[in-house]
UniProtKB/TrEMBL annotation:
Bilayer topology: Single-pass type I membrane protein
Name listed for the protein in its UniProt record: Protein kish
Pfam family membership, one: DUF1242
Record flagged with keyword Protease: no
Alphabetical keyword list: Golgi apparatus, Membrane, Signal, Transmembrane, Transmembrane helix
Residue intervals passing through the bilayer: 54-71
A single GO cellular-component term on record: Golgi membrane
Organism: Coilia grayii
Localization: Golgi apparatus membrane
Described purpose of this protein according to its UniProt entry: Involved in the early part of the secretory pathway.
Database matches in InterPro entries: KISH_domain, Ksh1
């Protein structure tokens, strides 16, 4: 099933996107900082969410890992 129609998969994809964008911005800030608007601005916004809400994102990643590991 596609990640769009399965809520747990959609949340997993969003969390991975946020974590990946924050990691890329930490390594090479110029890649995401030059595209703050438009379609590529989504990645900059995800990086900002990952930086500013990092404790909450980390808790969500841990919870999602446990639900994936121990779900039927």
């Amino acid at each position: 099933m596609s990640a769009i129609f399965n809520f747990q998969s959609l949340l997993t994809v969003i969390l991975l996107l946020i974590c990946t964008c924050a990691y890329i911005r930490a390594l090479a800030p110029s890649l995401l900082d030059k595209n703050k608007t438009g379609f590529l601005g989504i990645f900059w916004k995800c990086a900002r969410i990952g930086e500013r809400k990092s404790p909450y994102v980390a808790v969500c990643c841990i919870i999602m890992a446990f639900t994936i590991l121990f779900s039927e």
